[in-house]
Write a structure and sequence with these properties.
The structure holds two protein chains of two kinds. By secondary structure, chain A is of the alpha/beta class. Helix content of chain A is about 30%, strand content about 25%. Chain A has two domains: about 325 residues, 3-Layer(aba) Sandwich (Rossmann fold), CATH 3.40.50.12780; about 100 residues, GMP Synthetase, Chain A, domain 3 (2-Layer Sandwich). In chain A, strands 4-3-5-6-7-8-9-14-13 form a nine-stranded mixed sheet, sandwiched between helices. In chain A, helix 2 crosses helix 3. The radius of gyration of chain A is 22 Å and the shape is globular. Chain B is of the alpha+beta class. Chain B folds into two domains: about 70 residues, VC0802-like (2-Layer Sandwich), CATH 3.30.2130; about 70 residues, Alpha-Beta Plaits (2-Layer Sandwich). Chain B is about 35% helix and about 40% strand. In chain B, strands 1, 2, 3, 4, 5, 6 and 7 form a seven-stranded antiparallel sheet that branches. In chain B, a hairpin with a 3-residue loop joins strand 2 and strand 3. Chain B starts with a strand and ends with a helix. Classes of the chains: A alpha/beta, B alpha+beta. Chains A and B meet through helix 12 and strand 20 of A and strand 1, strand 3 and strand 4 of B.
Amino acid sequence: MFWDQKTETIERAALEALQLKRLQATVRRVARKVPLYRQKLAGGGVKPRDVQSLADVRRLPFTTNADLRDAYPAGLLAVAPEEVLRLHTSSGTTGKPKALFFSRRDVANAAELMARCLVMTGVTRRDVLQNMMTYGLFTGALVMHYGAEKVGCLVIPAGPGNSEKQLLLMQDFRTTVIHVTPSYALYLADFLQKKGVDPRRDLALRKAFVGAEPYTEETRRKIEQALGIDVYNSYGLSEMNGPGIAFDCEHKCGMHLWEDNFLVEIVDPRTGEPLPDGQTGELVLTALCREAMPLLRYRTRDITSIIPGPCPCGRTHRRLHRITGRSDDMLIVRGVNIYPQQIERVLMSLPSVGRNYQIVLDGLDEMTINVELAADGFDGHVEHMTRLQSEIVDRLRAEILTKPKVHLMPPGTLPVSEGKAKRVIDNRSL
Amino acid sequence: MSAVNLIAVFAENQLGQMARITQVLADADINIRWVTIATNESLGVIKFLVDKCDLAHQRLHEKGWTVSLVEVLAIEVEDRPGGLHAVADCLARNRINVENSSGFVSHNRAVLLIEVQDVPGAQQILANQGLHLLSQEEILKL
């Protein structure tokens, strides 16, 4: 199913012509309106008219996280303040947050792209969408909310947490779709099990849109299995609208990125040099349609690749591989680069291992993985657990090339979160 | 069949774990007849022979402990020099691989508890060798 079939299946040549036109317009506009870009372009000796082809995007300066923080609150605004309709911020875990502005057209456009995503997975106006993301300064919930309303769904703005109430709403209003973080989806699955609720029998759930944290294919399968639903991967970032930038179609084989709205590049995170399709690197996005705050070549710090080749759904917009890490999540342990997602992938592939885990770094690069046994994984034999521990160590060593300690724990021992999970505890005294 | 159920509790190697578990059993008026602890460097499994196995399982589970039942064989051993050797020799001759074992003597009757992979198979072999395997009821009456 399509929301906007003409745009979603546009010929590549026509798409690229449209991208170039929009890129040129964006560069002209930011050069005129945003002092930071005027300086950056002048510093790199680039004039807007130098952008003659899409390949010329490489001549444009990058925009970084630090640029956004320095520009706080309104340094990157490209429209008059009265044109701004909405403010979001992006998590300021270190120091100042990033301020992100939306004009009327930006709000409408974010909903439009979200509508494409929803319909692409088979959502119709008959669906009931329970939105379990945080409403507020975070874009995750609101953009989904507007997109689902645009499609005509009944939207329940539940927000995260309060699982008792989530269950009540799901039962009473026959919720068919949930929008949720992977850690809360897993938490909810456990909660339902404890309550004796069989989602296949007792609920009307069919789909979950899962995003806001990177997760693995194994986690997707665990959620699908536990809830008896299809899980669609959702990618977005507040700097570029929020969710709805790239989304799984019905084939769940990579997330179509709406290239009429965003120019996508994959670069080597260390050198910034572009990488070809199929190679893994940092995702860099240029907003082609954003009005209030268009960013050029924004370094997302998300590690992914572009999946080469066409998708059976017929959409021509290229697909992103699921995010395998964040360039700033990367741990360096004994000189080896490790993404927490690599560890998660190994753990989730072992059926006797539970869903909760923690990576603890101590002293001089000592790595311990605390992992819970699955709820039904205990058979009373310490030998079997010792064997499982060594199997986890071996598999992890094969994946991350360094040998961690593995500490198997009874189920329910590690802290559980109803929001974003804290997986890494770094106590190193380096 | 004459296998004996032990209740196994998954406990981290931490101070006071044993006391917290035995508190639950004491509160439920459950008598512990025998206990063994198996550990590796980070975790432990405490196994109990108790008079009310199902109740112990239920209460520990309710209190949030990870518990499981473990089936073991209780072989009666003659309480004399060479008694244990006769049984060990029989196990070896019949190639029964013992994963864990422990023994105790109560009222002049000696018992060897063994954990094996194939419980019914081992039961058959040991019975054929003329060894007496105690049932749950028998062992609790010792």
